[in-house]
Amino acid sequence: GAVVSQHPSWVICKSGTSVKIECRSLDFQATTMFWYRQFPKQSLMLMATSNEGSKATYEQGVEKDKFLINHASLTLSTLTVTSAHPEDSSFYICSALAGTGSWDEQFFGPGTRLTVL
Amino acid sequence: AQSVTQLDSHVSVSEGTPVLLRCNYSSSYSPSLFWYVQHPNKGLQLLLKYTSAATLVKGINGFEAEFKKSETSFHLTKPSAHMSDAAEYFCVVTSLNNDMRFGAGTRLTVKP
């Protein structure tokens, strides 16, 4: 089946630094990827929709200048948390929509746990 | 706008007894609905999905869900709980632009 990977699986950084998280579709092409954030014991909240070759669409309340998304190829989307602060500590999960465009073929990555000290 | 409400934040059952995890949805369109399971420190796994075909949907690991339009519900059931079923379960609805809206989650505990 379709596999989505994320790297790194966990990261610890100092406040004020930037962190990049990669999301890759390993065996299929994804024109659309999604980024979610999950706080402890809470549900996933959609942050943004990432489309290959165009600007990401951010959900209301998500700072686009803080959470930079780049979807430069059909198999890779990156999320960069800029000037990270402790409140950005969270579990970030990406998903990728299979290239057929069938809206139900969305596959999730294993997530990246970010801790900002 | 689409949304889902999971009616129980925590459900506890004994091993071998039935499981019922409740989900109600709200949608302006004919919805597509999913149940995902998340085990600790693991990625989301699709249990089953409803996409306007049969209203009773069978998924993996013995789970099934029934789409009831009149009740706007999509409850998840399993006849007999297993210890390995202990996890967080999410009911999800998809909007027209494919982004998913997750419910708050239900934590299932299975007692020996």
Question: How do the strands and helices of this protein lay out in sequence?
Answer:
The complex is a heterodimer of chains A (117) and B (112).
Chain A lengths: L3 E4 L2 E4 L5 E7 L6 E7 L5 E8 L5 E2 L8 E7 L2 E6 L8 E8 L8 E3 L3 E5 L1
Parallel strand pairs in A: 2-11
Antiparallel strand pairs in A: 1-3, 3-8, 4-5, 4-9, 5-6, 7-8, 9-10, 9-11
Chain B lengths: L2 E4 L3 E5 L4 E3 L1 E4 L5 E7 L5 E7 L5 E3 L5 E5 L4 E6 L8 E8 L5 E3 L3 E6 L1
Parallel strand pairs in B: 2-12
Antiparallel strand pairs in B: 1-4, 3-9, 5-6, 5-10, 7-8, 8-9, 10-11, 10-12
Average per-residue pLDDT of chain B, rounded, comes to: 91
Mean pLDDT of chain A: 89
Distance between the termini of chain B: 41 Å
Radius of gyration of chain B: 13 Å
Which chain pair has the greatest contact? A-B, 20 and 20 residues
Helical percent range of chain B?
under 10%
Relevant terms:
heterodimer, A: 117 residues, seven-stranded mixed beta sheet, four-stranded antiparallel beta sheet, globular, B: 112 residues, mainly beta
What does this structure look like?
The complex is a heterodimer of chains A (117) and B (112). Chain A is mainly beta and 117 residues long. The mean pLDDT of chain A is 89. Chain B is built from no helices and 12 strands. In chain B, the strands form 3 sheets. In chain B, strands 2, 5, 6, 10, 11 and 12 form a 6-stranded mixed β-sheet that branches. Chain B is globular. The model of chain B has no long low-confidence stretch (mean pLDDT 91). The N and C termini of chain B lie far apart (41 Å). Helix content of chain B is 0%, strand content 54%.
